[in-house]
Amino acid sequence: MNKKNIYIVIPFLFLFFSCGAYFNQPLKTSKARLGENTTNNKILDGVIPVTPLVVGVYKFRDQTGQYKLVENGSSWSTAITQGGTSILLKSLEDSKWFTPIERENVSNLLNERQIIRSTRQEYSKDNVDKTTTIPPLLFAGILLEGGVVSYDSNIITGGSGARYFGAGGSAQYRQDRITVYLRAVSTSNGQILKTVYTSKTILSQGISANLFRYVSLKRLLEVETGVTRNEPTQLAVKEAIDKAVETLIVEGIVDGLWVPQGAEEVVNSVKEKYLKEKQEAESTALLDRKLEDKRGKSAVSVSGGTYHIAGDYSNSIGKLGGAFGHKFYFKNPALNLNFGIGYFQLENEKAFKEDFGSFDINLEYNILPYENLTPFMYTGIGGVSDIDFNNPYFKFQYGIGIEFLPIKTFGIKLFGEQNILFNDKLDGFENGKRDDYYWRLGVGLNFYIGKPFESVKSVIFE
């Protein structure tokens, strides 16, 4: 790229990055607004209680004691809001399933009631009993306890960037995670009726671009732009608490602790939705990895590639060959046993050339069995012989590769394999102490057969 083209491309590059900064740049002050909404209660949509439950919350606060991370120095600001009780009370009120009562600052309430009683008594003249009477306080049948129990910083961090002749750009991201526990306690006997916990990730992203270049003698051009987005921690806490309240209501309905309007029909509908969501949650590991078997119980495989002999002759020539195989998965979708047969040719320039057939038995391990892109490794034993089966030899082999699934039940793989014989006779010439071996580099297709396993559990995070 010549100098003229660089000056044409650079403005477009910075225009692209600057758009992100411009459209997110606050150009004027904003007015106060209603608080942002978080996720809606999908399971409880349209489900209302027969009678709202009176609940009390004494405290629901940050139990992590963690402070904000700063690059330089130290900070005494907490990483999580200390107003968890207020957020929980709002969530309980919005759910329509509970009647929350004041307990966090109950001493203030009692003092105010005492002031009311004393004032009425002092200024009453006729009927003292009626004027000094105050309605009794509501008492809670259930207490809600818990809090934000963890704040995990930087569970994922990463980025990318490039620079060429003083012009470049970069992108960075970071993900944190909070966890909330909530439990319902019966005030009549102290029994813990139900305990639930939820988690929410907090995403931070940053994009920047810059240019640092001498445009002429003693003239330096320096340009920089960028934009950063940080998900508000308070909204993440609110969403986690909202989800905890919803889960508490749903599990209470399923277990018969409280009853919705609509009786059995509504209970079954709620239970069906909840079991579906719970199954999805159980099949999702940390970092939002979906633990879903995409491959099935067996597969037919075809592959082709080049074969290179490493024997007693020099100047090996790569020759084409092919193989056909069938693999059977164990109950663990990461592990399978496969059988294969192949046909190929080995050649050394002006010294050796022969056609061969092979039979292999391999134990294969998929490192990320639930991902669309997964590395794999395998090892096994087998045999190789000329086409007339006059000289069969035993061997063992091992290999590594990577497989990509563009759609379920179909995979494309790239692999490399070494086949080591137990003797030095493959090329018909014995020389030295080293046994003969050959390399196989190829590409293949996997066609998966059979219904995927119903019981899916992580073999990576367990």
Automatic annotation (TrEMBL):
A Pfam family reported for this protein in Swiss-Prot or TrEMBL: CsgG
TM region positions: 6-23
Keyword Cell membrane assigned: yes
Keywords for the protein's UniProt record, in alphabetical order: Cell membrane, Lipoprotein, Membrane, Palmitate, Signal, Transmembrane, Transmembrane helix
Annotated SUPFAM superfamilies: OMPA-like
InterPro entries: Curli_assmbl/transp-comp_CsgG (IPR005534), OMP/PagP_B-barrel (IPR011250)
Gene Ontology, cellular component aspect: outer membrane-bounded periplasmic space
Superkingdom assignment: Bacteria
Protein's name according to its UniProt entry: Curli production assembly/transport component CsgG
Source organism: Lutibacter oceani
